[in-house]
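Anyone able to model this chain together with zinc ion?
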Amino acid sequence: MVWLTARRLHEALAGRVLTRSDVRVPRYATTDLTGRTVTEGVARGKHLLIRVEGGITVHTHLRMDGSWRVRPAGDRIAPSHRIRLVLANDTWQAVGYQLGIVEVLPTAREASVVGHLGPDLLGPDWDLAEATRRLRSAPARAVGEALLDQRNLAGVGNLYKAEVLFLRGVDPWRPVGDVAGLDALVDLARRLMDANKERSGQVTTGVWRPGEQTWVYGRAGRPCRRCGTPIRSADQGETAERVTFWCPHCQS
Ligand SMILES: [Zn+2]
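re: yes, here you go
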């Protein structure tokens, strides 16, 4: 989702001069980027970075409810208190709704907001060995929790975490140090995300019919597609995306 959002923002904004910038966050209320050309829009894990000439970066994060909509410049956008940020040029307007993070910072300081991230699963510099090294550095930690920690590897969300653990038969509470084939597990997460990155939906079963798109995610109480055992769900970890799903028979 974030990868696709970054690409859409890049296509709408990069190489064009901003004719409007409206940052509806008190701290940046007077920030005006009008007249500057956007150089690129990129994703770093779940973070979105919009780089503007003059060494400025607009950093946003969708968190739980955020979204971006890109519309032709002439379209009327309904007023909404949910709008946090508007960036527009002569052709397009990009409107950010309910963004969890909005900040404007020097491009040279991007590392202060994304420098802690582990290797980016969909990034050009993806590094499987480094990602698994980081995961194994806390061997007692539950694997379901470790996979969501963006300092280990950047980009895995709750859906892919639950699905990849099911596909590899691994219980979300198993300690990382006891997971055989951690490399294969992480690589499978990357391949699932890569296969879905250009779509707005997320499918791990290969079946696009509604209700059949995942193995365990969002299926609490429904029968496991492999063994029929009811899928379980429970809270795990400290992140906002804490509910996990698993089959107690297929995963151990
Ligand atoms: Zn099962």
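The mean pLDDT is 94.
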